[in-house]
Amino acid sequence: MADTEHKVTPMMAQYLEIKSRHRDALLFYRMGDFYELFFDDAVAASAALDIALTKRGKHEGDDIPMCGVPVHAAEGYLLTLIRKGFRVGVCEQLESPVEAKKRGAKSVVKRDVVRLVTPGTLTEESLLDARRHNFLVAFAEIRDEGALAWVDISTGEFHVMPCPLIRLAPELARLNPSEILLSEAFEVNWADLVPDFADCVTPLSRASFDSTSAQKRLTDLFKVASLDAFGGFSLSEVSAMGAVIDYLEITQKGKLPLIRPPAKELARGNMQIDGATRRNLEITRSLSGGRDGSLVSVMDRTVTAAGGRLLERRLSSPSCDVAVINHRLDAVNFAADNRAITNTLRDALRNVPDIERALSRIGLDRGGPRDLAAIRNGLTEAEVISNALPPENIPTLIHQNMTFLTGHTDLIDLLDAALVAEPPLLARDGGYIAAGYHEELEECRKLRDEGRGVIASLQSEYANATGIQALKIKHNNVLGYFIETTATHAEKMLSPPLNETFIHRQTTANQVRFTTLELSELETKIHNAGGRALEIEKHLFSGLCSRILEHAPQITDTSRALSEIDLATSLADLATSENWVRPVVDSGRKLDIQSGRHPVVERALRKQGGDTFVANNCDLSDGRDGAAIWLLTGPNMSGKSTFLRQNALIALIAQMGSYVPAAAAHIGIVSQLFSRVGASDDLARGRSTFMVEMVETAAILNQADDRALVILDEIGRGTATYDGLSIAWATLEHLHDSNQCRALFATHYHEMTALSEKLDGAVNATVSVKEWDGDVIFLHEVLKGKADRSYGVQVARLAGLPTSVVERAKIVLAALESGEAENAKNPKAIIDDLPLFAASPAPQKAPTPKGPSEVDEKLAGISPDELSPREALQLLYELKSLADT
């Protein structure tokens, strides 16, 4: 009995063998219409998916835990598991149960893993964000030379660049990959190096990163003798690219996706932006982690998914190439100046599906009928867009892409003829091949859908041939279809020449039953018509996929061209409706922004129906009228941080090739963008707010070059006053003397305003405020000069601090300011001489509100709509007189 309990069934033996080859993944084991999970996989999956945990049989005397998900709903469960950090091996049935039984009654259906689902290898539409890339990244290092390669298998994008270890964190922040491949031999502490991506790492063997094997992998994939056709690559770059391809071969089980030849990026080809700056500026994600409230959410008016991905890519990687930037600006300018053409283009673009991702799924044999329709519809709209563009006087960028919009007539005609207008999602459902396209398919469909009509037609034919109108074709479960007639008429059918056609099958008391070869064949066809129709459709589907893949490079070029046109026209629409202007972008050091605005804050104010955004100038140009560094003072809540951020964003927006939110802007190329704005801690790594601030400041001072733009806010606030002031003071001097960069430096340390007299390239600026009846009114206007006060107590009052606290703070502040003036040479005396830490006076009651003034009473009795201009003027004089008294 014990032996029986411990015996492993053939199916479970198969499961255990397959699982042993995929220990690091949950195994989705296909059993009919379900994917089943067993043992520890079932326990983990049931908890992650919140589904029931059951049991199936025993193994070594213990119950086998089991849970399952329906095949038709598997994508939703996969998404949940991937987001929770699992990898999933999809184990499919490789034959039908009927085929398995041919090998023996107890034979197990052949199964194997056909795909490993990991965060960086997703292609399903439901698992991906349509407007974001899903990058798989590999980092390789050979003899201290690093390289980064990345691919999005859902679109075919494949890039590589040199990347020293010090640049790895900023580049990963730019790409925001879903999965990162590292060699098992990589010895650096990854969690310390790139803490934001500590959970994204997948280790690979050293062999995956071997540059010699990688070279062969790549040449085989792209069918070239040498990679020189794509440019010169270092050993580390080849190693990183080879690791990506090796991982795809492992996860896709040899079925590689359509990948474009690798494009090499220059290390200094794009504006360098580190992770802290990306977070602070909220370029693609807000501080809360979502898309809403980010710069991309405000700028995104694209109408295609590929256009949305291109916008995010451009904002993440602003160019430093003046010619490239101006070509992009020319395209936006053309679209803005030709509104009628732009509207026509955008109407057509709205009908363009996601061609890139449809093509990728087809290439991986995961496509469905709707992917074929997406290719057809996208290429059709590309022809429409090409015809809408004028043949002459169009900018270079659009002209270059026009050539990729046409040339697909034969493929479009084929897909038009073969596919129905709105095909189903899955090929297994059938019904996607158009009527009349295939003769045998039409016959099968007719038999499947109109079997009774076909039988009735044959019955009529036989009745006419025999002259027996009482002849009927009937059906039962024993004989199937048969011809039935009375015994009287049967004699005629049993005699020559009819007996050569009609074959006797059965005689009953009153009837005689016959069949014919034609009826037997027709019966077989009717029974098999549904299955045969589906087989024919699948065969035709496969043929259409092959034809599309023959044109894959051209289709990819068309998709890229459409996304370029979508982005240009969307940026033009944004510029026109939001009153943005074309910036002047050149290779100089000038950075002059007139009436600049923060696009996200401006949008938020408009939505809230609040105040109009106050635009401000910023001139960081060298020369008599400008200075490369502005030292900005002013109270909290006055808009200093917004001013800092908006100028950084305007430079970024200009270099991605867009119009900017300003009245005018002249941007000399910014090579690096650094931001140290806002306060946060990193408790998980033992870093206080001040330590985080110092680490980020150190990174800026150690890396910023003379073409960088640096925005710093409240350096030194996390420590003692004199410590903080000394750090801020030295930081500003270093930016001016050593980095020699352009910078906006906001501070509450008014003592630092004296530096403008010492540093030739620095000037003071302040955010103006107005004090009224003890309250502070923020004007949000940035002017040259320095603030005389911080207005901290007034801001505290606005924040709702108890009146007693505010009044006590005023007393302490007055004492400190008086003592500071009298004891300038002995700061400690300020504390020693004043009883600040003596017993505090009793909390003061809030002042009793006074009754209404004469002015208030006068205003209360006025109805402005009923006043004439003369009466209003007279009233104004009266109010002025009352106020003066």
TrEMBL record:
InterPro entries: DNA_mismatch_repair_MutS, DNA_mismatch_repair_MutS-lik_N, DNA_mismatch_repair_MutS/MSH, DNA_mismatch_repair_MutS_C, DNA_mismatch_repair_MutS_clamp, DNA_mismatch_repair_MutS_core, DNA_mismatch_repair_MutS_N, DNA_mismatch_repair_MutS_sf. PROSITE patterns: DNA_MISMATCH_REPAIR_2. ATP binds at G634, P635, N636, M637, S638, G639, K640, S641. One of its GO terms (cellular component) is cytosol. One of its GO terms (biological process) is mismatch repair. This is DNA mismatch repair protein MutS. Gene3D superfamilies: 1.10.1420.10, 6.10.140.430, DNA repair protein MutS, domain I, MutS, connector domain, P-loop containing nucleotide triphosphate hydrolases. Pfam families: MutS_I, MutS_II, MutS_III, MutS_IV, MutS_V. Keywords: ATP-binding, DNA damage, DNA repair, DNA-binding, Nucleotide-binding. It comes from Celeribacter marinus. This protein is involved in the repair of mismatches in DNA. It is possible that it carries out the mismatch recognition step. This protein has a weak ATPase activity. GO terms for molecular function: ATP binding; ATP-dependent DNA damage sensor activity; damaged DNA binding; mismatched DNA binding. Belongs to the DNA mismatch repair MutS family.
